[in-house]
């Protein structure tokens, strides 16, 4: 476990994740209080990575349940292997005669068969899914329930018992109680509102798009090979794109993809023909691409105007002159 909030920040940094003090505080409290965390925010801001880095920082296994519409208990908790049970029954058919040897009457025979129930109803016929694996793990694990907002409200209601008591019931066998309470992180892109009952059982954390300074720091950490000027210009453009009415707003993951793509193509500045050809890396819909192209043209026009004015005045452009052009 973590010894302090600063310990969270340091261990996350070792795993190349910049955790703000607010994020680190929630992580520390959740691990100490053994409470789930509901992480909400737009897509691409690092919600899923938070669970991965938490597992890495603690040296624990991460089990992931990807939610989707129509997800039910059978796919999330366990499946009963009826075919395997039937096969066992066929194999042991010849042995039933031996079990019944010496019995007198139907009642005694039934009782003798019933005493062998554990052969036909046991854990060997349970095919565990992510939630069951998390409950029955001998070691503490990190359980990621990803995009819970995509699952139906009925599945959300099913999770309430699990998150409250950390136990599940298999009708054929009985109740399984967690051997080690897992650290649970639920993520939501706000496709629908989560119920008050679910929120009541969790600590809440909202992760928004990073500020300009935070995004630059992330690029330096995740893509150190990128030129400083290129990183600065990319962040300026991305920050401006997030102010537009796009179908899919670019997240930090798209920013990193764009920077890495431009660096791979040896682009040193956005004033390059290759830049326009790589916009699909950061925006995913044709309408958004056109808006991004216009925004990029406007940005480059302002850069050239600013540089021209600076050259005319003899003052030079300055290292951070471009960063306010989109304000």
Characterize the structure shown.
The chain is of the alpha/beta class and about 325 residues long. The chain folds into 3 domains: about 150 residues, P-loop containing nucleotide triphosphate hydrolases (Rossmann fold); about 45 residues, no CATH class; about 100 residues. It is built from 16 helices and 9 strands. It has a 5-stranded parallel β-sheet, sandwiched between helices. Strand 6 and strand 7 form a beta hairpin.
* CATH homologous superfamily designation of the largest domain: P-loop containing nucleotide triphosphate hydrolases
Instruction: Give, in spatial order, the strands making up the sheet with the most strands.
Output: 2-5-8-1-9
CATH architecture name of the largest domain: 3-Layer(aba) Sandwich
Extended strand count: 9
Radius of gyration: 28 Å
Please write the string of helix (H) and strand (E) elements: HHEHEHEHHHHEHEHEEEHEHHHHH
Helicity, as a percent range: 40-55%
Structural class: alpha/beta
CATH topology of the largest domain: Rossmann fold
Write down the overall mean pLDDT. Answer: 84
Hey, roughly how much beta strand do the residues contain? 5-15%
Mind summarizing the main beta sheet? 5 strands, parallel
Number of helices: 16
Distance between the termini: 43 Å
Question: Which consecutive residue ranges, at least 5 long each, have pLDDT under 50?
Answer: 315-327
Number of domains: 3
């Amino acid at each position: 476990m973590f010894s302090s909030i600063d310990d969270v920040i340091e261990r996350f940094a070792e795993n190349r994740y910049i955790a703000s003090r607010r994020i680190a505080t929630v992580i520390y409290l959740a691990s100490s209080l053994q409470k789930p965390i509901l992480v909400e925010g737009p897509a691409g801001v690092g919600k899923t990575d938070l669970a991965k880095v938490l597992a890495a920082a603690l040296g624990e296994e991460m089990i992931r349940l990807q939610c989707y519409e129509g997800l039910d208990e059978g796919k999330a908790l366990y499946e009963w292997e009826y075919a395997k049970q039937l096969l066992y029954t066929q194999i042991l058919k010849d042995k039933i005669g031996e079990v019944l040897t010496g019995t007198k009457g139907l009642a005694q025979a039934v009782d003798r068969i019933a005493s062998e129930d554990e052969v036909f109803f046991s854990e060997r016929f349970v095919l565990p899914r992510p939630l069951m694996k998390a409950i029955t793990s001998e070691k503490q694990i990190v359980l990621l329930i990803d995009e819970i907002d995509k699952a139906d409200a009925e599945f959300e209601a099913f999770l309430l018992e699990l998150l409250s008591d950390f136990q599940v019931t298999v009708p054929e066998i009985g109740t399984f109680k967690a051997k080690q309470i897992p650290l649970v992180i639920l993520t939501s892109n706000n496709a629908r509102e989560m119920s008050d009952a679910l929120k009541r059982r969790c600590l809440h954390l909202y992760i928004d798009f990073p500020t300009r300074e935070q995004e630059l720091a992330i690029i330096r950490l995740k893509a150190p090979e990128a030129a400083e000027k290129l990183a600065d210009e990319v962040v300026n453009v991305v920050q401006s794109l997030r102010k537009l009415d796009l179908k899919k707003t670019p997240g930090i993951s798209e920013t990193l993809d764009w920077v890495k793509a431009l660096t791979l193509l040896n682009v040193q500045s956005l004033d390059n023909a290759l830049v326009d050809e790589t916009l699909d890396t950061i925006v995913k819909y044709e309408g958004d691409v056109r808006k991004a192209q216009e925004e990029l043209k406007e940005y480059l026009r302002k850069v050239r105007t600013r540089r021209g004015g600076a050259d005319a005045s003899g003052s030079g452009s300055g290292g951070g002159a471009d960063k306010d052009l989109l304000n």
